């Protein structure tokens, strides 16, 4: 795109800065001050001054650990958990004489659990390390001196190095662009790795360095750059370059950011400004938000509760032990003579009973430690990682068009997906496609465009009337009206304008100016296909692309851009032929969220100076000249109609400038752009404000952002599941309302509570400009409107209301003294739509809902303006859509389409919640069952600290014999299939109401464990003691009773798992029955070891247990007896008091799943008067018809 060398290129003519020579006035004083202290010696990275500054190297490390820090840091992370710390303390105490078991058996399980977690951490960190190695060893050409460039690794770069980056290579650091392969020193940059945007950005070097085109030109090159310190702002850069004895201001347009890619440019030369962790992309890189689920927090409380139980048991046992020990020696008589109280150690000395009781307390704390599940945390981590893998690999959430699957960026929150009460959603790009189509326009007060939007179809269906377009009934059948235009971004149908027919219109001159403005007023980059000659565009937004495409299709083809001009192929209205016209591009005043408009200043071939402007109606109408308002009334009317049709509108206007006026503006504009102060943008806006006035109205554009596929159906299912949906959007109120109707978020008959500040009193105050008076009146008005809304809801009873509030009102509604009233009103409504809301307001509303209701919230959005909302919510879901990847990078889970939210929540969310809840309850059950048998035996043994089981039996219970079935349940169990989860959304309410992890259910499982422990202990001891155990007449000793009890515990907890599971897989069979089999194998192998190691288990199974029928009979009888209570409870509950999943299991079992009428009856249980969605809408309509029929009778 080189345009030949120009002697002087005023590069500021296109962007909001100046690259030519300029004075700095007083603004340069910030350079060298706080925040602006960086000094770069270009081409002299090794000079003494550069070395003394000690800037960061270009080696980048994203790992959590280093080789030196891994062990201490990972151990610290593990022992921050109170349970792990407790097991560490008991492990240390196991080396003392207090321990009821050997030290090795206590330490080994802890090492296994901590080791497994640390191995997982190390594997994850090693993967990050491999990525770091690949990035740091990429090659780039760097100047070695004497004009010679050679390849070196990225990690070797230093601040001040001159590098040469070639086409399609990534920038290795933040570079100052010096020159490029183009004569005018421009280059094209793809920033997908930074913000996900695929459109190309145009960058341009200073004029002073633009002539450095050859390697040899850098032989004697030296420059001094003073600039801002490293920071995370991707879109700002303030600095100066001293070169050729002159100072030149630097702006973001000269900064090439690390990890961006050079495109459509053969090569560039750049000076390294920021390296490694000082680069802006690394400064921006953050870990996924650190959030913990409510279940995980509650689990901590349960563990604290169990600690309380453990210490209480130890305390009671110690008091009893102290009293009994003191009474052991009464004069010459000894109660427990076998303990030799007259010659006892400190642990059983009646004379020092209080000390003995304290020692016993410590022994008991160690002995009862098996109440606390040591492998719980690591098991849950394993399960959550595997659950996340299932989410990532679900083909039903894979979007083929963009080749993007779902991606769980954190596995901490899987179960939260099953407990969502409120969804807070962005609109554009989330509910809609953010793929704009030019569909209508209003020019010179006449509406053009016969296309019918989805919102218009929904409105016509709602009203039961034919679709009317521009005063005519739309007679096209639905197939024609739905037909897609072959040109992406253009769906305009009107024979008065297309095919050059606009020249016959009465105001053809205005139409010509209108489309010419669309073709010139933008920052798009044209790309001409050399083979076909077709022009395509890289634009900064879908809206901008749609405008340029529309202009091209209607006879104003933009095909070439240089730094000082844009060229069009225009349809000449006289000759009806296309002619080339070039416009000198003098300035671009860029769009930003506060200005809400963009303008360009051009000189046409006739020498006229024109200001062309387009922007939001809220800022454009007030800038019209008195003689420029000819079509204002008609245009306002059309804009409102377009908003009603769900379209996004912009106003187009222009004015002619005289040379003196432009000269004065140009000087002030250049001064503002050359400012290096922090408020440079404000200065530029102030200068622009003075020239963007007295405009002449041309008309308005209307582009459609279609609803994403499946959005109404998804909202309907989520509503049936009892999930509330709030829409937070920056769009106009009318647009948002009509999109709400189109996606069934609003329905006919639903009364609307609208809160805005469009009252005559406030408008009058705004004209007077009294800020304090406006604020007070506005706040009073919002307060009054909210009170009226609450009164309406109280008076109506069962009617459904929708709350619609605009951004201005939201400012006051979110103030501390009013936010609770706003929340109370909003929660009472079926739908909530916040219009014209800023990113900060989105985040504040999300925080209010999360903290105010105490329920689980999910925020979903696709743009950078949704980041605050996503991070504030309990779960943030990013849409990997058109607006880049910033939302995805800040999210917990990424999906490609809104409709995938249905499966993510109703299927994966429900399964994960049920699995994790059941898994944790079962963990506590099996540990209570095991721990209480140890407690009961110690009580049976007069609280003497005698363990019921062999040391290794104790140690391996949690690690090997009972953990794998729980993990299998957490990964594979399904109460109902995915199809039934979607067919009966009511099932989701189990998670919202938290019925599967309530304290009642948790205590119930613990009580079940206690019952199992009591049954196992008493049946085993009564059956085995003191009767003869085998045919030789030997009685059962500690080792036989303990091993029999242990065998019964292993059988009971594994069989309990088999009863509790709803969905068996081969893996679960292997883990459950394999866990039992592993116990017998271990008993054989351990018993075969020397007595010094196997102690009480030496040949126990072979010689004593296996050969004795009573062992097998007792085991069978005890296992059945211990399972009867839970089985009976489950049978009664399932038959007479089924939960939601139980009902659906009955439906499936009885074969009624395919009966539509029966299923409809079940589904209707989830519909309330406040439920939104088309199912609720249909039912409401049926109810109204029934009511009318009854009234007629």
From TrEMBL:
Catalytic activity: ATP + H2O + phospholipidSide 1 = ADP + phosphate + phospholipidSide 2
Chain sites annotated for binding Mg(2+): 426, 428, 862, 866
EC number in record: 7.6.2.1
Molecular function as annotated in GO: ATP binding; ATP hydrolysis activity; ATPase-coupled intramembrane lipid transporter activity; magnesium ion binding
GO biological process, one term: phospholipid translocation
SUPFAM superfamilies per record: Calcium ATPase, transduction domain A, Calcium ATPase, transmembrane domain M, HAD-like, Metal cation-transporting ATPase, ATP-binding domain N
Occurrences of domain P-type ATPase C-terminal (ranges): 888-1138
Protein task: Involved in transport of phospholipids.
Family label: Belongs to the cation transport ATPase (P-type) (TC 3.A.3) family. Type IV subfamily.
Name of the protein in its database record: Phospholipid-transporting ATPase
Organism for this UniProt entry: Escallonia herrerae
């Amino acid at each position: 795109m080189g345009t030949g060398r120009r002697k002087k290129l005023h590069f500021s003519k296109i962007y909001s800065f100046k690259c030519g020579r300029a004075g700095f006035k007083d603004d340069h004083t910030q350079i060298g001050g706080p925040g602006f202290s960086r000094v770069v010696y270009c081409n002299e990275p090794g000079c003494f001054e550069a070395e003394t500054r000690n800037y960061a190297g270009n080696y980048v490390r994203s790992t959590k650990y280093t080789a030196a820090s891994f062990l201490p840091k990972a151990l610290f992370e593990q022992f921050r958990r109170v349970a792990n710390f407790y097991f560490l303390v008991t492990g240390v105490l196991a080396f003392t004489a207090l321990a009821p078991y050997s030290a090795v058996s206590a330490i080994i399980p802890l090492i296994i659990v901590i080791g497994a977690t640390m191995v997982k951490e190390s594997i994850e960190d090693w993967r990050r390390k491999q990525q770091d190695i690949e990035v740091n060893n990429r090659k780039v050409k760097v100047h070695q001196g004497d004009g010679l460039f050679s390849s070196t690794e990225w990690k070797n770069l230093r601040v001040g190095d001159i590098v040469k980056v070639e086409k399609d290579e990534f920038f290795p650091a933040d570079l100052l662009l010096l020159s490029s392969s183009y004569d005018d020193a421009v280059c094209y940059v793809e920033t997908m790795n930074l913000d996900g945007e695929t459109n190309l950005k145009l960058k341009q070097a200073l004029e002073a360095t633009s002539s450095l085109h050859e390697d040899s030109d850098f032989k004697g090159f030296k420059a001094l750059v003073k600039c801002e310190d490293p920071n995370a702002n991707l879109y700002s850069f303030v600095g100066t370059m001293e070169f050729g004895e002159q100072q030149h201001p630097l702006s973001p347009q000269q900064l090439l950011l690390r990890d961006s890619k050079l495109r459509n440019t053969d090569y560039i030369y750049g000076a390294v400004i920021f390296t490694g962790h000082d680069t802006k992309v690394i400064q921006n890189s953050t870990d996924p938000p650190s959030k913990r689920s409510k279940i995980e927090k509650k689990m901590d409380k349960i563990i604290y509760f169990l600690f309380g139980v453990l210490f209480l048991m130890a305390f009671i046992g110690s008091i009893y032990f102290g009293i009994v020990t003191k009474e052991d020696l009464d004069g010459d008589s000894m109660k427990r003579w076998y303990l030799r109280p007259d010659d006892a150690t400190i642990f059983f000395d009646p004379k020092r009973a209080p000390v003995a009781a304290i020692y016993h307390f410590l022994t008991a704390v160690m002995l009862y430690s098996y109440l606390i599940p040591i492998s719980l945390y690591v098991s849950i981590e394993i399960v959550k990682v595997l659950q996340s893998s299932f989410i990532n690999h679900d083909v039903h959430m894979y979007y083929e068009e963009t080749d993007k699957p779902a991606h769980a960026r954190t596995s901490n929150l899987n179960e939260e997906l099953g407990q969502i009460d409120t969804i807070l959603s962005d609109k554009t790009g989330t509910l809609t496609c953010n793929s704009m189509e030019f569909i209508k326009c209003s020019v010179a007060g006449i509406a053009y465009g016969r296309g019918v939007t989805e919102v218009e179809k929904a409105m016509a269906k709602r009203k039961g009337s034919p679709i009317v377009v521009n005063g005519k009934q739309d007679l096209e059948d639905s197939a024609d009206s739905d037909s897609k235009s072959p040109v992406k971004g253009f769906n305009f149908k009107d024979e008065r304008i297309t095919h050059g027919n606009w020249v016959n219109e009465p105001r053809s001159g205005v139409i010509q100016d209108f489309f010419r403005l669309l073709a010139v007023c933008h920052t798009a980059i044209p790309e001409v296909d050399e083979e076909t000659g077709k022009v395509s565009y890289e634009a900064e937004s879908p809206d901008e692309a749609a405008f340029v495409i529309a202009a091209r299709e209607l006879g104003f083809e933009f095909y070439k851009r240089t730094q000082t001009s844009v060229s069009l192929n225009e349809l000449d209205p006289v000759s009806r032929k296309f002619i080339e016209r070039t416009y000198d591009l003098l300035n671009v005043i860029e769009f930003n969220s506060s200005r809400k408009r963009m303008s360009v200043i051009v000189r046409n071939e006739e020498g006229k100076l024109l200001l062309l402007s387009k922007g939001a109606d809220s800022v454009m109408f007030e800038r019209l000249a008195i003689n420029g308002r000819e079509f204002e009334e008609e245009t306002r009317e059309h804009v409102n109609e377009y908003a009603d049709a769900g379209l996004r509108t912009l106003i187009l206007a222009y004015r002619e400038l005289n040379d003196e006026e432009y000269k004065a503006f140009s000087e002030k504009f250049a001064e503002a752009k050359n400012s290096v102060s922090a408020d440079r943008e404000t200065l530029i806006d102030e200068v622009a404000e003075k020239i963007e006035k007295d405009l002449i109205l041309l008309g308005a554009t209307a582009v459609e952002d279609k609803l994403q596929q499946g959005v109404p159906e998804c909202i309907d299912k989520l509503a049936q599941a009892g999930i509330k949906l709030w829409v937070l959007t920056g769009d106009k109120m009318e647009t948002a309302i009509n999109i709400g109707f189109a996606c069934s978020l609003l329905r006919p008959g639903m009364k609307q509570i609208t809160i805005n500040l469009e009252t005559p009193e406030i408008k009058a105050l705004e004209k007077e400009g009294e800020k304090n008076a406006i604020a007070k009146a506005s706040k009073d008005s919002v307060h009054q409107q909210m009170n009226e809304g609450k009164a309406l809801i109280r008076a109506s009873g069962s009617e459904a209301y929708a709350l619609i509030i605009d951004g201005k009102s939201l400012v006051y509604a979110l103030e501390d003294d009013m936010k609770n009233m706003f929340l109370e009103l909003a929660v009472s409504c079926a739908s909530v739509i916040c219009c014209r809301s800023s990113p900060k307001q989105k985040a504040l509303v999300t925080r209010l809902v999360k903290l105010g209701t105490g329920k689980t919230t999910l925020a979903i959005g696709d743009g950078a303006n949704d980041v605050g909302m996503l991070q504030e919510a309990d779960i943030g879901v990013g849409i990997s859509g058109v607006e880049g990847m910033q939302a995805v990078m800040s999210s917990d889970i990424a999906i490609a389409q809104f409709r995938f939210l249905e499966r993510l929540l109703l299927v994966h969310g429900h399964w994960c919640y049920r699995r994790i809840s059941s898994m944790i309850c079962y963990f506590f059950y099996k540990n209570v069952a095991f721990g209480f048998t140890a407690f009961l035996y110690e009580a049976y043994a007069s609280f003497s600290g005698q363990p019921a089981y062999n040391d290794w039996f104790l140690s391996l219970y949690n690690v090997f014999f009972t953990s794998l079935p729980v993990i299998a349940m957490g990964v594979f169990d399904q109460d109902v299939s995915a199809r039934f989860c979607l067919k009966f959304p009511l099932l989701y309410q189990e998670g919202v109401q938290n019925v599967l992890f309530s304290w009642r259910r948790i205590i119930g499982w613990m009580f079940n464990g206690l019952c199992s422990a009591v049954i196992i202990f008493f049946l085993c001891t009564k059956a085995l003691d003191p009767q003869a155990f085998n045919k030789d007449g030997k009685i059962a000793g500690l080792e036989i009773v303990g091993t029999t009890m242990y065998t019964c515990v292993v059988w009971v907890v594994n069989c309990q798992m088999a009863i509790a599971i709803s969905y068996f897989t081969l893996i679960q069979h292997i883990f459950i029955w394999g866990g039992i089999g592993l116990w017998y194998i271990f008993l054989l192998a351990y018993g075969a070891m020397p007595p010094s190691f196997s102690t009480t288990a030496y040949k126990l199974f072979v010689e004593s247990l296996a050969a004795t029928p009573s062992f097998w009979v007792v085991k069978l009888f005890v296992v059945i007896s211990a399972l009867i209570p839970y089985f009976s409870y489950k049978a009664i509950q399932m038959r007479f008091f089924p939960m939601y999943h139980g009902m659906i299991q009955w439906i499936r079992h009885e074969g009624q799943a395919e009966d539509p009428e029966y299923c409809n009856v079940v589904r209707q249980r989830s519909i309330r008067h406040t439920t939104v969605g088309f199912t609720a809408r249909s039912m409401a309509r049926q109810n109204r018809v029934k009511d009318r029929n009854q009234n007629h009778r």
